[in-house]
Amino acid sequence: MRKTILASLLAAWIAMGAVGCAQAGHTGDEAPELVVSAAASLGLPLEDIRKAYEAAAPGTKLLINYGSTGGLQKQIEMGMPTDVFLAAGSKPMEQLLEAGWIDKELHATLLTNRLVVVVPADREAMPGRLEALADEAWGKIAIGVPETVPAGGYAKEALDAAGLWDDVFVKAVFGKDVRQVLTAVETGNADAGFVYATDASASNGVRVAFEVPPERHSPIHYPVGVVGASERPAEAEAFYRYLLSDEAMRVFEQYGFRAAEERP
């Protein structure tokens, strides 16, 4: 069964060089089961991709572990079994790569996104630019923890560039990931918040006030890589190749993500 599955994957993605050989150390009756750690902001498209991939490779099961990119990075560094990592920022992937946790030949920048400021959907007034967030009208500002949530890091960069970080910090409501930030705004527990454009477009509970000028923060990149310690490297590479395919990219684009210019 295992060889049949891998042969099917090889036929489907031979043009992309997907590996279809059987992995040593496992019996042929075992169904491939991959652990994919992914940034929380990728939840919606990855669920569609998971269904499509499992249908294309019967018997393959994708176990997707969502969380903040920084938290997922630490899990990998602590040895949590992981086969493929999708991050919402370049730095965590680079650090894992330098430390030898990511396969040096199997990593790439996959997607890009945009950072926006949102307000509750029922709020009439909206800030028109970053400088407005220092006003008393915006008492609580939701931001991802900058040290572990890339969206929060981008927000801090932008606020620093505008000379506003100290003003916003004193009234910040910090979230463990971008989904928690979005929820804080949706429920009215924050007057405004920094999230990705893709998260805002998927919510009926917020309105986009403005897009943060991209020149005020680092480029928003979503890299993907195969974890070097994967116990199923062949299947991990096959899924990695699928994520780079045009078929998967169409799903990401349906949710507002954009293909990275340097995507292989």
Write a structural description.
The longest helix has 14 residues, at about 45-55. It contains 10 helices and 11 strands. The chain starts with a helix and ends in a 5-residue tail after the last strand. It has helices at about 1-15, 45-55, 70-75, 90-100, 150-160, 165-170, 180-185, 195-200, 235-245, 245-255; strands spanning about 35-40, 60-65, 85, 100-110, 115-120, 140-145, 170-175, 190-195, 205-210, 220-225, 260. The protein is an alpha/beta fold. Helix 1 packs parallel to helix 9 (about 235-245). The chain is about 35% helix and about 25% strand. It has a 6-stranded mixed β-sheet with strand order 2-1-3-10-4-11. The chain has a 5-stranded mixed β-sheet with strand order 7-6-8-5-9, with helices on both faces. The chain is elongated, with a radius of gyration of 20 Å.
Give descriptors for this structure.
264 residues, alpha/beta, six-stranded mixed β-sheet, elongated, disordered N terminus
Share of helix among residues? 25-40%
How would you classify the quaternary structure? Answer: single chain
Largest sheet: 6 strands, mixed
The mean pLDDT is: 88
Number of strands: 11
N- to C-terminal separation? 31 Å
Low-confidence stretches: 1-29
* Percentage of residues in DSSP E strands: 15-25%
Q: Which strand order do you get reading across the main beta sheet?
A: 2-1-3-10-4-11
Shape descriptor: elongated
* Topology order in helix (H) and strand (E) letters: HEHEHEHEEEHHEHEHEEHHE
